[in-house]
Design a protein that fits this description.
The chain is mainly alpha-helical. It has a single domain, classed as Orthogonal Bundle (Retinoid X Receptor). Helix content is 64%, strand content 3%. The protein contains 11 helices and 2 strands; from the N terminus they run αβαααβααααααα. A two-stranded antiparallel ribbon has the order 1-2. α4 crosses α6. The protein is globular, with a radius of gyration of 18 Å. GO terms for molecular function: DNA binding; transcription corepressor activity; zinc ion binding. It comes from Carassius auratus (Goldfish). Belongs to the nuclear hormone receptor family. NR0 subfamily. Keywords: Cytoplasm, DNA-binding, Metal-binding, Nucleus, Receptor, Repressor, Transcription, Transcription regulation, Zinc, Zinc-finger. This is Nuclear receptor subfamily 0, group B, member 2b.
């Protein structure tokens, strides 16, 4: 079986097939949501339900607060993307005109071109990932099992709880663990997609708010 990390890397870093000349900067063109008010509201709802899902799991609630926060840090992006797939959320983007970018830089005096800003290529890879998940035609139960397996996969935990996490993973159905290893490892997904998800779906409504701080508050709140 192909290594899961390699599979995820292939999914998320696939060349932009729709853009024949990447040297022509098609994939690197900056984009933003076409309908940010609607899409960001839907995305925030998915995020809320993602956190609620985590908090609803008995195995999650039994963990020490420190370990719960570690899991949220390491897994929220992966579970959020699975939430987008489960709810069949679709979205469109538009290219940000270069003149608008330059005007913002000149007017603010502080803004700089940011490598983390969403690009056409990044969105293409994200949609490719969602289409890959949709092609599996998972049931609600399968989504729940897959999310649980991703959440409790061993590499999510710190040194103090890695053995406990490995034990929790054994409670997930074998076929769901296989799906998890076949599709991706959540740590790689977090690395590849966190900036894109944050900047595309949440920055338009959250501004410079610390999203991780918000997630921590949602976990701590009873």
């Amino acid at each position: 079986m192909r290594h899961p990390r390699g599979l995820l890397f292939s999914i998320l870093n696939r060349e932009c097939d729709g853009y024949p000349d990447t040297r022509g900067c098609h994939c690197q063109r900056l984009v933003c949501l076409r309908n940010p008010e609607t899409t960001c509201r839907v995305a925030f709802g998915v995020l809320m339900r993602t956190i609620h899902f985590m908090k609803s799991l008995p195995s999650f609630r039994k963990l020490a607060l420190r370990d719960r926060l570690v899991l949220v840090e390491k897994r929220w992006v992966a579970l959020f993307l699975l939430g987008l797939a489960q709810e069949h959320v679709t979205f469109e983007v538009r290219v940000v005109p270069a003149a608008s970018i330059l005007r913002n830089i000149l007017m603010s005096g502080r803004q700089k071109p940011d490598e983390r800003r969403p690009t056409l290529g990044g969105v293409h890879r994200l949609k490719t990932f969602l289409n890959t998940v949709w092609s599996l035609d998972l049931s609600l139960g399968e989504y729940a099992g897959l999310k649980s397996a991703v959440l409790f996969s061993p590499d999510a935990a710190g040194p103090r709880s890695s053995e406990e996490m490995a034990g929790l993973l054994q409670t997930c159905p074998t076929d769901q663990r296989s799906l998890t290893h076949l599709l991706f490892t959540a740590s790689a997904l977090q690395t590849e997609a966190q900036s894109l998800v944050t900047e595309l779906f949440f920055r338009p409504i959250a501004g410079q708010m610390d999203l991780h701080k918000l997630l921590h508050e949602m976990i701590v709140k009873q």
